[in-house]
Amino acid sequence: MKIFAFALRPYDELPYLDAISRQLDFSYDWTDEYPTLENAHLARGADALNIITNPMTPELLDAYHKLGIRAIATRSIGYDHIDVAHARSLGMRLAHAVYPPEGVADYTIMLILMALRRAKFVFKQAAVQDFSLAGKIGRDLSSCTVGVVGTGAIGSCVVRYLSGFGCRILAYDPYERAEVREHARYTGLEELLAASDVVTLHAPGLPENHHMIGEKELALMPEGAILVNAARGMLVDTAALIDALESGHLGGAALDTIEDEAGLYYLDRSRDILPHRDRAVLDALPNVIVSPHMAFYTARDVEGMVRSTCEALLAFSRGEDAPNEILG
Predict the structure, then answer these.
(1) Is the peptide bond preceding residue 186 cis, with omega within 30 degrees of 0?
(2) How far is the C-alpha of 133 from the C-alpha of 123, rounded, in Å?
(3) Exposure check for the chain: N or C terminus, fewer CB within 10 A?
(4) Do 196 and 147 touch, CB atoms closer than 8 A?
């Protein structure tokens, strides 16, 4: 079994892949390049691909299929960057990563606290020696109602963490969990939005969730409320969010992911003029935090991403099922 890894980071993912290949007895090759039609030939001789959040278009999938690739795993929980229907029409098996939820949950709590305490504005002013207090007053989390949208593994962990702060917690998910009910009350989405001082998103990036937070939903949120997104950028209508922030209706936002971020993360674009005006607008606002989609980025989670995807590809090569297989 040979795996070819695209967009592999040599400073963290490669050492894990090398160690795991020896433990699980498979061979591999890799590149730090993102997959394109021009470099598809690099995968020649491999049985499966290991990718990150790289768009897998029908054209790319066809090229890899001709090279003999029969399985692809993405080192991310989300898989909306893969044309799943086309891959399945080619007979390819697909998998996504699984890793412990605590890393993203930790980061989410950090974003909530930073937004409530106006940390971006405070630190920027301190950097120019403005140590005044005017305009910097924050809110304590214990006085807030927090709405958690999506209570899968990560959302459930966020609920558990929030319970320690003494805040009121609401939750929304089509599939309720008993452990979440111990700390939160499940409601409809509209009720949650209307009652929450902070709304944090943990829903999957499925087509039916596209722009689940748009103009109508943002208008339901109380004046001064904060929106946090450490899940998928496509959950939020960015134009509507900017309007809600510029009008003063929303009190702030903390975003680890935004729409149309492909080609930005995880690259050094410091010397480039970026064709992403929405990100520039959001980053310019003093009450908005924009981080580069790195809530997952802990040593434990990176190892889990590499291991779980390799284990799935090995299972596929043996004709077995994998718990993290993408089925539709």
Answers:
(1) no
(2) 12
(3) C
(4) yes
> Can you give the length of the chain in residues?
328
CATH class of 2-99+298-326: alpha beta
Q: Which residue has the tokens 């779980």?
A: 308
**For every residue of 70-85, which 3-state class applies, written as one string?**
CEEEECCCCCCCECHH
Within 10 Å of residue 132's Cβ, how many Cβ atoms? 7
- CATH of span 102-290: 3.40.50.720
Cross-strand bridge partners of residue 254: 228, 289
DSSP string, 133-176: -TT-----GGG-EEEEE--SHHHHHHHHHHGGGT-EEEEE-SS-
- Active-site residues, by number, are 232, 261, 293
* Whether the predicted model's global pTM rises above the 0.90 cut: yes
Q: Is the dihedral of CA 106, 124, 235, 218 positive or negative?
A: positive
CATH 3.40.50.720 domain residues, the chain: 2-99+298-326, 102-290
Q: Rounded CA gap, 253 and 234, in Å?
A: 15
Prior bond of 297 cis (ω within 30°): no
* Residue 165 to residue 140: CA distance in whole angstroms: 9
Q: How far apart are CA 248 and CA 237, in angstroms?
A: 17
Q: What is the pLDDT along the chain (328 residues), one digit of tens a residue?
A: 999 999 999 999 999 999 999 999 999 999 999 999 999 999 999 999 999 988 899 999 999 999 999 999 999 988 989 999 999 999 999 999 999 999 999 999 999 999 999 999 999 999 999 999 999 999 999 999 999 999 999 999 999 999 999 999 999 999 999 999 999 999 999 999 999 999 999 999 889 999 999 999 999 999 999 999 999 999 999 999 999 999 999 999 999 999 998 888 888 999 999 989 999 999 999 999 999 999 999 999 999 999 999 999 999 999 999 999 999 7
